[in-house]
TrEMBL record, chain A:
Signal peptide: none annotated. InterPro entries: Longin-like_dom_sf (IPR011012), Sedlin (IPR006722). PANTHER family: TRAFFICKING PROTEIN PARTICLE COMPLEX SUBUNIT 2 (PTHR12403). It comes from the Eukaryota. Pfam families: Sedlin_N. GO terms for biological process: endoplasmic reticulum to Golgi vesicle-mediated transport. One of its GO terms (cellular component) is cytoplasm. This is Trafficking protein particle complex subunit 2. Coiled coil: none annotated. It comes from Protea cynaroides.
TrEMBL record, chain B:
Transmembrane segments: none annotated. Residues 606-779 form the TPPC8 first Ig-like domain. This is Trafficking protein particle complex subunit 8. Residues 822-940 form the TPPC8 second Ig-like domain. InterPro entries: Ig_TPPC8_1st, Ig_TPPC8_2nd, Ig_TPPC8_C, TPR-like_helical_dom_sf, TRAPP_III_complex_Trs85. Residues 1212-1271 form the TPPC8 C-terminal Ig-like domain. It comes from Protea cynaroides. Coiled coil: none annotated. It holds the Pfam family Ig_TPPC8_C. GO terms for cellular component: TRAPPIII protein complex.
Length: 110, 1309
C-alpha cells in the first residue's frame, strides 16, 4: 500500500519539535508543505477539544486500534527524550536514535 | 437570539423572495424614460420598496394581519428567463475582478496585523462577498421548479405617443416575447394585468393622454388602468432628486444626470402608482389566489380520505421510468399549485401556511422521485423554519437534505446546491455557528469552479476567524486554499491578498514549510504584478531554507535573484540570512601593546601570555591590583575601550556558513566602520549616549530594522568616501553547507576613536546585505584581548586609535615542525623594526627553557656544530655563556641591544628537543620605545610555535661500585634507538662535574663496536667511573663552572678522530642545567649522584633525508641523564687491602695474616667510625636465618639492566642487599678463622680524608675465607652545628656489614 503519512510532535506555542514523513509512497515535493498545512490547521480542533475533555493524554488519545500501539510506543520514546537532562523541553528533538526508532515503529504499525 | 427577519438571511429573503412583476412596454416608453438616463424599470425601482405599507392581509385563517414591509421586483419580460450560464459566469468573474481592482491600492502596504483581524466582525467583511453571493444566487432565478420567481403580475406600459395605444396594449401581451415560463405552461398564463399609460410632459399637454386613459378604462376595466406623467420638470428650475436612483444604477456614468427631468410631482406620482399597484392589486390578488389554492388543496389533499387516495394514486405512478427531473408538472397540476400556494404564503409572510404546504409537497415529490423539486421544497421548508424561528434543528436538517439532494442529481443541481449552501451558511451565521458555517462553505467550494470555490473558501476562512474562540490556524489554512484557487482562476491580486492575510497568522511560527510556501508564492505573484520590491522582500524570508530539497533551494534562490535583477538596482538588505554569520565565532584580533607574530600566537589564551609575562612587564596596566585601590590616574575612557595604533590593522575573523546545499558566491565582504578623528571624539561620545538612550524607545522590531539598515547604509556610504581608514575586501564562494572563516581588516590612518559597526557583503553581485554587530540580542564572548567579558560588544568593538609607535615583527628562522628528541640545533630569531623609531630595553621570556634558550651574539657567527666542539688547544673553554651565570631566571635580557628603525635584528637561539611529545613554545619579547613621549611606553611581541618531538634514543644507566677499588664504579649504559627509521651514530658520553671521571673499561678497546645504531637496535656499553675528588679541592664553594667540567669518552668506532663536544660549552651546559632542574629536585651537585650526557649524530651521508629534508644541517643529538646514584649513601667508604693468596705451612703453626682496612670519609663532616670484628661461631644462629631468607645468589638489583634510580629509598635497599651478601658468605665459610687484635677499633676521620686501619687474622687451616664478618659503625660528628632542614633527612649514623673479601690460604709445600 503506497500511502504517506506525516507525524509531527508539536510543543507548546505551536512549535513543531519533531517531524517525520512516514509511509511507503514516494516523496513528493509538495507533500511537505501540504502536510504541514493540514496538521497545523488540525491543531485548532485539537485545541478546541482539549478544553472539553481530559482524555488528551497521548497514550489514550487515538481510538483507532491500529494506531494506538504506535502512539503508545512513541510516547515511551518521547518520555525517554524528556528524561534526558540535556534536552530542553520544547526544543527540537534532534536525536537520530529517536528518529530511527519512530520510523521503525511507523513501518511496523502504520 | 436575533429576530430572524432582521438577520442578514432574513433581510435577504425579504428582498429576494418577493413578488415579481413582469413589465411589458413599448419602445416609446423606454425612450421617454431614457431622457432621464434611466430605463423604465430603473425609474420605478426606488419606489418598489415599501418600508411602511401597512396593508391588512388575510390569507387562510380568519385573522387578518398587517404587512409593514413589502417589496416588488420588476423585470422586463425579456429578462424573465434563466440567465445564460456563460454570461452569468462572466458577470461573477467581473464582480471578483472589480473587487480586486479596488484592493490593489493596499497591496503594496503592510499586510494586516493579527490583532486587527481579530478585532474584525462579520460587519466589517468586504462588501463584495455579499454582492458575489447575491449574484451567485441570481444565476438561478426564474427556475422552473420554484414559484417565487414566477411573475405575480404583469405591468403593460404604453406611451401616449404610441399610435393606437389600446391595440398596443393587446399586442404587447400577445407577442411571443413572453417568457418561456408562461409559454411552456409552467405557470398559469392567466396573470394579473395592470395597464399603464406613460405621458411625457415635454411632448405637450396630457389631454390626449387622458383621452386614451378613458378609452383604456373602458376597454380593460376601471381599476386596472392608470396614467403616469413624467418629465414635467423644467430645465434647472427644480431641485435635483437624482440621488434617489444612484444606488440602483450600477454602471453610472458621471456625466449623466439621473432623473433630471423628473420633478417632485412626477416622483410622488410614481410613488402612488407603485403603492396602489402593490396594495390594491398585487396583495389582494395574492390573497385571493392563496385562498383559492388553499381551498383546492384542502379539497383534494387534506383529510384522511384524500391522503389515502393520493397515496394510492401515486403508487400507481411508480412504474413510470425516472425522468432526470422527475415527472413534468404543469401549472394546473396539484403539486405546482401547492408550490405556488407555499411561495405566495411565504411572500405574504404567512409562514405557517407556507410550511404546511411545503411539507405536504415534499412527501409527494419524494415519492415521485422528483428530486430537484423535492430539494427545492426542502430548501423552502428550511427557510420557513428559519423565518418562523422555531426549530433550528429542523431547519438545518432540511437544508442539509436539500443540499445533498441537489448534489445527488448531478450537474443540474450543482448551482442550486450552492445557493442552498449559501442560505444554509447564512442561517448558521445568524445563529453564530461560524465553525459549522465554515464547513458548509468548504462543502460548497468543492462543487464550484475554482473562482467561486476561492471566494467560498475565503469566506470560510473568515468564518473560522469569527468563531469563538477564533480558529486562526484554520483561518490561515483556508486563506491559503482560497489563494491557491484564486491563482488557478487567474486572480493574482486576490491570491496575494489572501496569502498576505494568512501570513499574519503564520508569522513567527516555526512550521518552516508553511512559511516557505506562503512567502514564496506571495513573492512570485508580486513579481507577476511587477511589484518587485515587495516580491523581493517576501523572497528574502525563504532564502535560508536549509530544510528544503536542493531543487527547491535552487528554485528559491534563482527566483529571488531574478526578481532582484528585475528591480534594476542593487537591493539592500538588513541582516540577510545567506550566508549566516556565526556571531559566537566572531573574533577580533588587534594589537595594542601586545603584538603577535602570527595568528597562531594571537589565538593563544591571554592568561597564558600573561602568566608568562608576569615578571617581565612590571607596569602592565592589568596587573592584578586590588579592586579596592582607587583607580590609577590613567583615564577611565582608555580603559574602557581597546587601544590600537595608527597604521596597524585590526583583524576580524567572521565565520560565514552557507545553510543551503547549493553554492553561493559572496563578494565585497568588508567591515563597516566609523572613525571619529581626535577632534570629534567628544561628539562621538555624545552620539554614543544617544544610541544608548534610544534603543528601547522604538518598540517595533521592524521599524528598528529599517532604522538600523538606514544607519548602516549611510555609514557605508561615508566609509567609501573617507580616507581615515582602509578596509579590506574579500571575495569568496561557498559550496553547499560550507563554513568559511573570513578575515577582514580595517586599518586606521588617523588618531581618534574607531568603531566597527558591522559587515557588508554582496550575494551574487546583486543583493547587498548589511549586518550590524552592535545588537542587543547577540552576545559575543570570544573577543580577544579583553579581560572583562561582561562588557557589551559595542564597547569591545570600539577602539581608541593612538599615534603610530614602532612595532617589531619577526619570526624564528629554521624552526622545524617535527624533530627527534635530543636534537640540538641553533636557530635565529629575526626581528624587524619597520618604523623610524628605534626600540630598546628588550627582554625575552621563553615558556620552555628546557627546549629553547637564547644564545649569545657570538654564536651567530660561528659554525654549527663545530662551535660546540672542544677547543683543541685549551683544556677548558673559558668562554662562558652569559646566561649560565644566572641561569635561574628564564627572563633573558638583550642587555643594551637596540633595534634601529628600519633595521633587522638577529639573535641566536638554541633549541633542544628535550622530551618526546607535542610542545607549544611561547616566546614573549618586551621592548620599549626610544622616545618616551609616545602614548605607548612599551610593547610586547609574542611568538608561538608548535613543535612535535619524536622519540629517538632511550638511555639508562646502571652504576655499581667497583669491588676492587675504592671510589671507582662500574657504569653500564643501555641505549635503545626508538626512532622509526633513523640510524644514529653514538659520538661521545660525558660525565658532568669535575669529581667524576669517566673512562672506558679497558683503555684501548673501542667501547662501541657498532658504526651505527639502527632503528630499534639496543646496545649496552660499560664504563668505569672514578671519583677523582681530592680533599684539597674541598676549599671554598664549588663554582658552577667546575661542576659542569666533565670528562668525555669517545664512543665512535676505533680510530675516529672526530672532535669531542664540549659539554661544558655554552649551549649544552645550559640545556644540561635545565635538564637537571627538570629531572631532579636539587641543583647542587650532590656527591652521591652523577650526570651523563650522551651525544650522538646522524650519519653524514644518509640516503634518505629524514625529517623535513634538513639533512644539510649537521644534526647533533644530546641526551642528558641526570642524578644517577652511585649506589652508596654511606659517607664512609672502605676497602680491605691485603694479599689474596697466602701460602703457609700449617704444620708449623697457624697462619697469621696482616691486612689493612682503608677507610675514606667522603662527607663534609668529621666522622667517627667504629669497626667491630665478629667471630663466626658467635653469631651463627642469627645469620643463618638471614641466609635462609635471601637464598638467591646475587641480589636482583645487581643483575637487572633497567631500573629507575630512585633517590628516596636507596639507603634501605642497599643496606639490605649487603646484608644478604653477608649472610650468604658466612654460611659458605668452611673453616673458622679468628680476628686477631682488638675486636673493635674506633677511628675519627676528618672530612675527605682517608686512613688505614691495620687488621690481623689467624687462620688455622688452608681454605678460602670470606672476611666479611665485621661491621662498620659510623656517626657524623656535628660539632655543635644545628641541623639544617636538608640534614634532617640525611642519615647521621649507620651500621654497615662488611664487604666480602676472599682470601685463599694454601698449604705451602
Amino acid at each position: 500500500m503506497a500511502s504517506t503519512a506525516c507525524f509531527i510532535i508539536v510543543s507548546r506555542n505551536d512549535i513543531p519539535i519533531y517531524e517525520a514523513e512516514v509511509g511507503s509512497a514516494l516523496k513528493k515535493e509538495e507533500a511537505a508543505h501540504q502536510h504541514q498545512f493540514i496538521l497545523n490547521a488540525a491543531l485548532d480542533i485539537v485545541q478546541d477539544i482539549a478544553w472539553n475533555t481530559s482524555a488528551m493524554f497521548l497514550k489514550a488519545v487515538d481510538r483507532f486500534n491500529d494506531l494506538v500501539v504506535f502512539f503508545q510506543e512513541v510516547h515511551e520514546l518521547y518520555i525517554k527524550i524528556l528524561l534526558n537532562p540535556l534536552y530542553l523541553p520544547g526544543s527540537r528533538i534532534t536525536s537520530s536514535h529517536f528518529d530511527t526508532k519512530v520510523r521503525g515503529l511507523a513501518r511496523k504499525y502504520l | 437570539m436575533v429576530d430572524p427577519a432582521s438577520s442578514f438571511l432574513g433581510k435577504m429573503l425579504l428582498e429576494e423572495i418577493t413578488p415579481v412583476v413582469m413589465v411589458l412596454r413599448t419602445p416609446l416608453v423606454e425612450e421617454a424614460c431614457l431622457k432621464n438616463g434611466l430605463t423604465f424599470v430603473q425609474m420605478l425601482q426606488p419606489f418598489c420598496v415599501f418600508n411602511n405599507i401597512d396593508v391588512p392581509v388575510r390569507t387562510v385563517s380568519d385573522q387578518p394581519y398587517r404587512l409593514h414591509k413589502f417589496k416588488l421586483r420588476l423585470f422586463y419580460a425579456s429578462d424573465i428567463k434563466q440567465p445564460n450560464v456563460e454570461a452569468a459566469e462572466e458577470h461573477l468573474k467581473e464582480v471578483v475582478t472589480r473587487a480586486a481592482e479596488k484592493d490593489l491600492s493596499d497591496l503594496s502596504s503592510d499586510p494586516p496585523q493579527l490583532d486587527d483581524l481579530l478585532a474584525m466582525n462579520s460587519e466589517s467583511l468586504p462588501l463584495w462577498f455579499k454582492i458575489f453571493n447575491k449574484e451567485l444566487i441570481r444565476t438561478l432565478s426564474f427556475s422552473e421548479h420554484e414559484a417565487f420567481d414566477h411573475p405575480v403580475a404583469c405591468l403593460l406600459v404604453v406611451s401616449s405617443k404610441d399610435e393606437l395605444p389600446i391595440n398596443k396594449f393587446v399586442d404587447l401581451f400577445n407577442t411571443n416575447q413572453l417568457p418561456s415560463l408562461l409559454n411552456d405552461g409552467v405557470m398559469d398564463p392567466k396573470i394579473l394585468k395592470h395597464y399603464l399609460l406613460i405621458h411625457d410632459n415635454q411632448d405637450g399637454s396630457s389631454e390626449k393622454a387622458t383621452n386614451v386613459l378613458t378609452e383604456m378604462r373602458s376597454t380593460f376595466g376601471m381599476n386596472d388602468c392608470r396614467l403616469l406623467c413624467i418629465n414635467s420638470a423644467k430645465d434647472g428650475s427644480e431641485e435635483r432628486i437624482g440621488s434617489l436612483w444612484t444606488p440602483y444604477k450600477t454602471d453610472t456614468s458621471p456625466s449623466q444626470d439621473l432623473g433630471c427631468l423628473l420633478n417632485v410631482n412626477d416622483v410622488s406620482e410614481i410613488k402612488d402608482l407603485m403603492q396602489d399597484l402593490s396594495s390594491k392589486h398585487i396583495i389582494p390578488h395574492m390573497e385571493q389566489k392563496i385562498r383559492v389554492l388553499n381551498q383546492q388543496v384542502s379539497a383534494t389533499r387534506k383529510g384522511f380520505r384524500n391522503q389515502i387516495k393520493n397515496l394510492w394514486w401515486r403508487k400507481g405512478k411508480e412504474d413510470t421510468p425516472d425522468a432526470p427531473n422527475g415527472p413534468m408538472y404543469t401549472f394546473s397540476s396539484i403539486e405546482s399549485q401547492i408550490r405556488v400556494l407555499g411561495d405566495y404564503a411565504f411572500m405574504l409572510r404567512d409562514y405557517e401556511l407556507a410550511l404546511s404546504s411545503c411539507r405536504l409537497l415534499s412527501t409527494d415529490y419524494k415519492i415521485d422521485k422528483s428530486w430537484k423539486r423535492y430539494a427545492g421544497v426542502q430548501e423552502m421548508m428550511a427557510l420557513t423554519y428559519f423565518m418562523l424561528d422555531q426549530s433550528r434543528k429542523e431547519a438545518e436538517n432540511c437544508m442539509e437534505n436539500a443540499f445533498s439532494t441537489y448534489l445527488k442529481i448531478g450537474s443540474t443541481g450543482q448551482r442550486n446546491a450552492t445557493r442552498c449552501g449559501l442560505w444554509w451558511v447564512e442561517m448558521l451565521k445568524a445563529k453564530e455557528q461560524y465553525k459549522e458555517a465554515a464547513g458548509v462553505y468548504f462543502r460548497i467550494s468543492s462543487e464550484e469552479p475554482s473562482l467561486h470555490a476561492a471566494v467560498m473558501l475565503e469566506q470560510a476562512s473568515f468564518c473560522y476567524l469569527f468563531s469563538n474562540p477564533p480558529m486562526l490556524r484554520k483561518y490561515g489554512f483556508h486563506l491559503v486554499l482560497a489563494g491557491n484557487r484564486y491563482y488557478m482562476s487567474d486572480q493574482k491580486k486576490h491570491s496575494i491578498r489572501t496569502y498576505r492575510s494568512a501570513l499574519s497568522v503564520y508569522k513567527g511560527n516555526s512550521w518552516s514549510f508553511i512559511k516557505d510556501h506562503v512567502h514564496f508564492h506571495v513573492g512570485k505573484w508580486y513579481a507577476f504584478l511587477g511589484i518587485f520590491d515587495v516580491a523581493v522582500k517576501h523572497m528574502l524570508e525563504i532564502l535560508a531554507c536549509s530544510h528544503q530539497s536542493v531543487m527547491t533551494q535552487e528554485l528559491f534562490l534563482k527566483d529571488f535573484l531574478q526578481n532582484v535583477e528585475k528591480m534594476g538596482k542593487t537591493y539592500e538588505v538588513f541582516r540577510l540570512q545567506l550566508p549566516i554569520i556565526n556571531m559566537s565565532s566572531l573574533k577580533v584580533v588587534f594589537e595594542d601593546y601586545r603584538t603577535y607574530a602570527s595568528t597562531a600566537a594571537a589565538n593563544v589564551r591571554e592568561s597564558l601570555w600573561q602568566s608568562l609575562e608576569e615578571d617581565m612587564v612590571h607596569s602592565l596596566p592589568m596587573s592584578r591590583s586590588n579592586w579596592l585601590e582607587p583607580e590609577a590616574k590613567s583615564s577611565k575612557k582608555d580603559k574602557d575601550s581597546n587601544v590600537c595604533v595608527v597604521g596597524e590593522a585590526i583583524k576580524m575573523d567572521i565565520e560565514f556558513k552557507n545553510p543551503l546545499q547549493i553554492p553561493i558566491s559572496i563578494s565585497g565582504v568588508s567591515l563597516i566602520c566609523q572613525l571619529f578623528p581626535r577632534s570629534e571624539v567628544a561628539e562621538c561620545e555624545l552620539t554614543e549616549k544617544d544610541a544608548h538612550a534610544h534603543p528601547y524607545e522604538s518598540a517595533s522590531g521592524e521599524k528598528n530594522d529599517a532604522e538600523e539598515l538606514r544607519k548602516l547604509t549611510s555609514n557605508w556610504e561615508l566609509n567609501s568616501g573617507v580616507s581615515s581608514f582602509a578596509l579590506s575586501e574579500v571575495v569568496f564562494s561557498m559550496r553547499g553547507g560550507e563554513t568559511t572563516v573570513v578575515q577582514l581588516t580595517v586599518t586606521p590612518k588617523v588618531e581618534g576613536v574607531l568603531k566597527i559597526i558591522g559587515v557588508r557583503w554582496k550575494l551574487s553581485d546583486s543583493v547587498v546585505s548589511y549586518y550590524n554587530f552592535d545588537s542587543d540580542h547577540v552576545k559575543k564572548k570570544n573577543i580577544k584581548g579583553r579581560k572583562k567579558s561582561s562588557q557589551s560588544s559595542s564597547k569591545n568593538l570600539k577602539f581608541v586609535v593612538i599615534k603610530s609607535v614602532p612595532k617589531l615583527e619577526g619570526c624564528i628562522r629554521h624552526l622545524p615542525g617535527k624533530i627527534y628528541a635530543g636534537d640540538t640545533r641553533r636557530l635565529v630569531l629575526e626581528l624587524k623594526n619597520q618604523s623610524d623609531i628605534s626600540v630598546k630595553n628588550m627582554k625575552m621570556k621563553i615558556s620552555h627553557p628546557r627546549f629553547v634558550i637564547p644564545g649569545s651574539l657570538e654564536d651567530l657567527n660561528v659554525e654549527f656544530p663545530s662551535c660546540l666542539e672542544k677547543n683543541s688547544n685549551s683544556e677548558h673553554n673559558d668562554v662562558q655563556p652569559s646566561s649560565s651565570k644566572q641561569p635561574k631566571s628564564s627572563l633573558f635580557s638583550f642587555e643594551d641591544a637596540a633595534i634601529q628603525g628600519g633595521t633587522t635584528f638577529f639573535w641566536p637561539l638554541w633549541l633542544r628537543a628535550a622530551v618526546p611529545g607535542r610542545i607549544s613554545l611561547y616566546l614573549s619579547l618586551y621592548y620599549e620605545m626610544e622616545n618616551l613621549s609616545s602614548e605607548m611606553k612599551y610593547r610586547i611581541f609574542r611568538i608561538h610555535y608548535d613543535l612535535e618531538v619524536l622519540q629517538s634514543l632511550d638511555l639508562s644507566f646502571q652504576i655499581s661500585p667497583c669491588p676492587s677499588k675504592l671510589q671507582e664504579f662500574l657504569v653500564r649504559m643501555d641505549v635503545v634507538n626508538r626512532t622509526s627509521s633513523e640510524n644514529l651514530q653514538l659520538h661521545q658520553l660525558s660525565s658532568v662535574g669535575h669529581q667524576w671521571e669517566i673512562s672506558p673499561l679497558q683503555p684501548n678497546e673501542a667501547i662501541c663496536p657498532l658504526q651505527l645504531l639502527k632503528a630499534g637496535q639496543a646496545l649496552s656499553c660499560f664504563f668505569k667511573l672514578k671519583n677523582c675528588r681530592k680533599s684539597s679541592m674541598f676549599e671554598g664553594s664549588i663554582s658552577f663552572h667546575s661542576l659542569l667540567q666533565g670528562h668525555d669518552v669517545r664512543l665512535g668506532p676505533q680510530g675516529s678522530d672526530k672532535a669531542l663536544f664540549d659539554v661544558s660549552g655554552s649551549a649544552l651546559a645550559d640545556f644540561h642545567h635545565h635538564e637537571r632542574l627538570q629531572q631532579g629536585k636539587s641543583i647542587q651537585g650532590q656527591q652521591g649522584t652523577v650526570d651523563f650526557i650522551l651525544i650522538s649524530q646522524l650519519p653524514k651521508n644518509r640516503a634518505d633525508h629524514g625529517l623535513e629534508g634538513q639533512s644539510d644541517l649537521p644534526q647533533l643529538f644530546s641526551h642528558h641523564s641526570c642524578h644517577h646514584s652511585i649506589a652508596s649513601t654511606s659517607p664512609v667508604w672502605w676497602l680491605m687491602n691485603g694479599p689474596r693468596t697466602v701460602h703457609h705451612n700449617f704444620t708449623v703453626s697457624f697462619c697469621e695474616i696482616r691486612l689493612g682496612m682503608a677507610i675514606h670519609n667522603s662527607s663534609k663532616e668529621a666522622i667517627s667510625i667504629r669497626m667491630s670484628t665478629l667471630d663466626v661461631t658467635s653469631s651463627d644462629g642469627q645469620l643463618s636465618d638471614v641466609a635462609a631468607a635471601a637464598q638467591d645468589p646475587i641480589s636482583s638489583e645487581n643483575q637487572g639492566g633497567w631500573h629507575n634510580v630512585s633517590l628516596g629509598n636507596d639507603i634501605k635497599v642497599t643496606s639490605d642487599a649487603l646484608g644478604t651478601q653477608f649472610g650468604k658468605s658466612s654460611s659458605d665459610v668452611m673453616a673458622p678463622f679468628v680476628w686477631a687484635a682488638s675486636s673493635s677499633t674506633r677511628v675519627e676521620l676528618e672530612p675527605m680524608s682517608t686512613t688505614e686501619v691495620p687488621l690481623k687474622i689467624c687462620v688455622f687451616a688452608p681454605g678460602t675465607y670470606n672476611l666479611s664478618n665485621y661491621t662498620m659503625h659510623w656517626e657524623v660528628k656535628l660539632l655543635g652545628v644545628p641541623l639544617s632542614a636538608g640534614d634532617r633527612t640525611r642519615q647521621l649514623s649507620g651500621r654497615s656489614p662488611g664487604h666480602p673479601y676472599y682470601i685463599t690460604v694454601l698449604q705451602s709445600p
